[in-house]
């Protein structure tokens, strides 16, 4: 479904940030450098780096990953970046 985090609770952006970080780290253990800041009001910033290359930045206009389709798009971008790293 579209809700890949628990929809029954009123989730703070901080919780969503931690949830997203965990999902990505489970998917790519030890491969990502995720930095971000979640506060009760806003997600602040959220950036994902692969081998020193910025893959996703909320601040630079990639937006917040709040739907499954955005999450899958991010995962695809990470996989592409990792493939380049492995070839390089």
TrEMBL record:
**Which named protein is this?**
Selenoprotein W
Annotated Gene Ontology cellular components are: cytoplasm
Q: What functional role does this protein have? A: Plays a role as a glutathione (GSH)-dependent antioxidant. May be involved in a redox-related process. May play a role in the myopathies of selenium deficiency.
Q: State the family it belongs to.
A: Belongs to the SelWTH family. Selenoprotein W subfamily.
**What gene does the UniProt entry assign to this protein?**
SELENOW
InterPro entries, alphabetized: Selenoprotein_Rdx-typ, SelW_related, Thioredoxin-like_sf
Under the heading NCBIfam families, the entry gives: CXXU_selWTH
GO terms for molecular function, please? antioxidant activity
Q: How does it assemble?
A: Interacts with DPYSL2, PRDX1, YWHAB, YWHAG, HSP70 and HSP90.
One Pfam family matching this protein: Rdx
Keyword annotations of the record: Antioxidant, Cytoplasm, Glutathionylation, Redox-active center, Selenocysteine
Gene3D superfamilies in the cross-refs: Glutaredoxin
Q: Where in the cell is it found?
A: Cytoplasm
- Residues forming coiled coils: none
Instruction: Report the superkingdom from the record.
Output: Eukaryota
